[in-house]
Amino acid sequence: MIDPKLLEILACPLCKTEVKLEGERLVCVQCARRYPVRDGIPVMLIEEAEPPSSGKNTASTERSNRRAMRKASGGLGS
Fold first, then answer.
1. DSSP secondary structure letters along 13-70
2. What's the longest Cα–Cα distance across the chain?
3. Tens-digit pLDDT profile for residues 24-35
4. Are 67 and 78 a contacting pair, CB within 8 Å?
5. Residue 47 carries which DSSP code?
6. SS3 48
């Protein structure tokens, strides 16, 4: 169980938007990546996240995700 106050301040490390608790995962409302919760601790690492399902992912979302990933890693590009 995650403290509701903690859940309010958590954000997806990739796109910086809110996450919602769904079962044992925190799901980003924008990119739909699913971050695991292990022993009650959210693992908010992009590398640990399950990618969004292909059915929900559009080309536009993929472009946004790639830009966010480059920005998060300090890369250049638009």
1. TTT--BEEEETTEEEETTT--EEEEETTEE---GGGSBPPPTTT--HHHHHHHHHHHH
2. 39
3. 999 999 999 999
4. yes
5. G
6. helix
Residue with structure tokens 């699913």? Answer: 34
Q: What is the pLDDT of residue 60?
A: 53
How far is the C-alpha of 24 from the C-alpha of 62, rounded, in Å? 25
Question: How many Å apart are CA 40 and CA 52, to the nearest integer?
Answer: 22
13-56 tens-digit pLDDT: 999 999 999 999 999 999 999 999 999 999 999 999 999 875 54
- The candidate with the shortest Cα–Cα distance to 16, out of 77, 73, 70, 68, is 68
Strands 19-22 and 34-38: unpaired
In which residue are the tokens 């990933």 written? 69
DSSP 8-state symbol, 53: P
pTM: 0.69
